[in-house]
C-alpha cells in the first residue's frame, strides 16, 4: 500500500525521487520500514523547501502534505498505524538510525523534531555561537568618542543617528548584527566601520576580509565600498589595507563546488583575518553559517549586515529572521549607559532587565531611510507589507495621491494583454536607444533603469511565458529579429550559473549587442561604470531576462519595477517576496495582481521549521 502512496505523491510532485531513495537507503534493515519511510521522506521533502527539521505534528492526518490532499494523507496515516505524536516518538527512538543526538546516527529526534544528524549539529553550532556573541572589545572610550564624532559630527538635532549608534555597537563588540533595509546606508556605514577599526588598530598588519553570499552581491558591495572609502580622510597606507576585494562566502571559505561540504578553511585551518564584514546576511543558510563559524579564529571581529524583511536563503535555514526575534529586545541597562557615553545620545532606559542580553546588546537597527521619502508610496507600502496590514496595503495601492505607486488588477484577458503592453513600454528608452545605434554603455544604462519581476517561473504569469509574449510582440512589430542561434540585437540575458574565470555570477544581467564588426557579443555594465564584453560562445548558462524572478533580483536596484503576481494562491507568495520586489525600486513601482492574491501574499509569512529561536 505504501508503494501506491509513493506513486501518487510523486505524480502530485509532493515528493521527489530523491526523497524516496533517501528513505529506502536508511530503512532497508529496519523493522518499522513503512512507518519510517513516511517520516524520512517527509523530512527530506521538508528540507528541500528550506526547513531544517520535521516537527512530528506534521505527520498527523490533518497536517500531512500541508493539508492539501486530505484523502491521500489519511490513507498514508492509516497505513503507518494511525500513530499519535507520542507513538511516532517511541517508534523513531526504537530505530537504530535515530537517536537523541548523544550518539552519532543518521537522524536525530530532539524536542519532537526530526533532523538529519548534520542539520541538528549545525543548528547547535550556530545557536552556541550567537547565544554567546556579546564579547566586549576593550578600547579606550576617549579614542572611540573622537572617531565617532569625526564620522558623525555633533549637531543640534535631537534625532538619534542610528548609524552612529550602530558604529558604536560594532566598535565595542567582537560579533555584531546590523539590521537595515534598502536605503538605510549600510554600505556607507561599512566604509566608516572599517575606517574606524583601522584607526583604532595598533598592529602593523591589519587583515580585512569582505564577503557576501552571491557573486553579484559581492561585486556590488566591493564597487560601492571603494566609492564610499574615497570620501573618507585616510592615508594611502590605510586605504590600501581597506581596499580588499569583496568575495563570495564560497570563495572566502575555499569551497570549490556548490553544496560541497569540504572547505579549505575550517576549525583546523581557520581564516587569517582581523575583521570580516558580511553583507546580505539574510541569504546565508544553515550549512554556510556553520562552515563560517567553524572557520573563524577566536580573535576575529565579525560584523553581519542584512535585512531580515527580505527573502531568506534558498537552502535550509532562516537564521537572520530567527536572530531578529532576539535582537528586538531592548539593550541591557549596562549597554545603554555605555552607548550613551560614546554617542552622547540619551537612549530609553530599560527598567525590565539588569542582565546582559547577548544578541540585543550586540545588535543595532538602522531605522532611517535615506533613499525613500517617509511620505512616499514605496516607503508607506513597504511598512504596510511588513506589518501585514491588508487594509492599508490595498488603500495605498488604490490611492491616486502616490505618484510612485501604480496598481493594475489582472482579472480578464484584456487586463492581461494590457499588462504585456504596459510592461513593454517600460523598456521603450532602451529599445529606442538600440534603434538609434547608441553606445553599448548607454543602451545598458537605459535597460538597467527598469525591470519586470515575477513571483514564479511557470504559467501565464511566470517569467518564461512573459518573456515569450514580450519577444513575440517585439517580433511582430519588427523591433527585433531572431537569428538561427536564438539571439538578436538587444536580447537581455541573465546568467544562471557562476563562472569565476569570467567573473560572471548567477544573477548578472547583460545585453546581446553588435560590436564594431557587427558580430554579436554579450555586454555587461559593472558597478564601476566599466563594460565587460564576453563572446557569446563563452557565456555560462543564461536565459532571456525581460522578466526575472524576485529571488534573482535580490541585491539589485532599478529606477522602476513592475511586479507580476500569479492569479493563484501559491506557497511561494509571501510578504517577504512582496517586500523584496518593492524595495528593488528607486523611483516607481507598478503592481499587476488581484486583490485576493495581494491579501493572501501579505498574510503569508516565511516559516522555516527549526528550533534555533528556542536554542538562542
Summarize the structure.
The protein has 616 residues and is α/β, with parallel strands linked by helices. Helix content is 42%, strand content 15%.
Task: Explain this structure.
The chain has 616 residues and is an alpha/beta fold. The chain contains 26 helices and 20 strands. Strands 7-6-8-9-5-10 form a six-stranded parallel β-sheet, sandwiched between helices. Strands 11-20-19-12-18 form a five-stranded parallel β-sheet, with helices on both faces. Strand 3 and strand 4 form a beta hairpin. The longest helix is centred in the N-terminal third of the chain and has 16 residues, at 33-48. The two termini are 42 Å apart. The model has no long low-confidence stretch (mean pLDDT 90).
Instruction: State the end-to-end distance.
Output: 42 Å
Q: What is the residue-averaged pLDDT?
A: 90
- Sheet having the most strands: 6 strands, parallel
Query: What is the general shape?
Result: globular
| Strand element count | 20
Beta-strand level of the residues, as a percent range?
15-25%
Which class of secondary structure composition applies to the elements?
alpha/beta
Q: Rg from C-alpha positions?
A: 26 Å
Question: Biggest sheet: strands side by side, in what order?
Answer: 7-6-8-9-5-10
Low-confidence stretches: none
Tally of contiguous helical segments: 26
State the helicity in percent bands: 40-55%
